[in-house]
Chromosomal replication initiator protein DnaA (Thermodesulfobium narugense DSM 14796), 439 residues
Amino acid sequence: IWQEILDVVEEKMGKPTVEAFLKPSRAIINKEDNKLTLIVPNEFIKTYIEQKSGKLKNIIEDILEGENLKLSLEVDESIGNLSQEEYLENNNKVEKNEQKGFLSKYTFETFVVGPGNRMAHAASLAVADNPGKAYNPLFIYGGAGLGKTHLLQAIATTIRSKKPNLYILYITSEKFTNEFINAIKDDKINSFQEHYRNIDILLVDDIQFIAGKERTQEEFFHTFNTLYESGKQIVLSSDRPPKEIRTLEERLRTRFEMGLIADIQPPDLETRIAILQKKAEIENIDIDPEALVLIAEKVASNIRELEGVLTKSMALCSINQESRITIKHAQEALKNIEDNKLNNLPTMDEIAIAVSKVMQIKLEDLKSRGRKSHQANARQIAMYLCREMTKNSLPQIGEYFGRDHSTVIHAYERIKEDINKDQTLKRIIEQIRSFLKSV
Ligand code: ADP
Ligand code: MG
């Protein structure tokens, strides 16, 4: 049936459409729920198939109807260069094959180096070239969407291609925590430990999330030591440096600081332009340089968002059946995002939750009378953000936190002043803002 789809689409819409949109995709048929799932390599293709006046989608659905199948679309960026057969095979092995977690588009070739990430990049390359011997552990930290996951995956992919016999595990700290909890629940701690202690290269993404989880930290401490002592490479990422991860056990903090700590700072304009150019080149996108610069100028602090605007511009361009992204598409895409932001003002509850998550403090402590300095600080930050990000009045904000409005003014003034002097404070506030964006 897949071949039939390819043939019919080629006949009705021409070979380029097939080459560009269907050849990179994979089809999985599930007879049980009468579904054909089309796995496509990126959001852009998904949008294209769904929109494009519905034409491509209609053609496919017509064919499927004859077989009594429904169409569903999914994005899986890891399909990369796998053929239809390889993809199916991989998919059957599924989950157990950890290697599948590597996203092939996150490589060193696609990573653009600039002043903000030069050191993290160089350290990652060194580790990929010489695992266990260059820097151990390598600890990379930086704000959301600045390329931490990209670098970890690039290290994993590089080592895997050079030394296919090594057991490489990329995992998020949340997944590690869940696996550990399940192992306890199912009484499989021994096999959990054995599994983790046989790893040659361990890459743990977003390690800050093990903060506050005592037993997970304890387990991770032992895993870390076992691997470290036998010279195995460990790479960690976090949104902040070890010394700023609260409720992280001291002995773990010390371990994390034993190797190299490299930070990633937001990209400057030139780097942002270079990233967009690279992306356009990889995905074969035709874009006006003017449009590209406009996007790079407007989206400054998060590369994921930068890519998002490019994708959005592409979608707008293809919906209008145009072949080149111009300043018009870029403006429209940026406006869309602005509108979303304006209409999606966070609520005070959302701000409070974000502050409590990022600053690792209990929600109720934000409203309590507690005077511990970390609590008071978090409370002032929350008030500041409520003043900056919502339309609530000072008395309303005061009431929410159980204080009067002069306390709110005081908090607002203090944070506003300190934010320019205090890098840590500045970074915390950026983290809270990106947390709010991500939910
Ligand atoms: P983080 O893990 O730090 O939140 P990611 O690694 O997920 O960020 O990066 C977000 C997006 O930005 C990804 O699509 C990634 O490929 C892209 N990206 C980040 N840094 C770069 C870079 N220096 N060059 C090219 N793309 C980048
Ligand atoms: Mg990440």
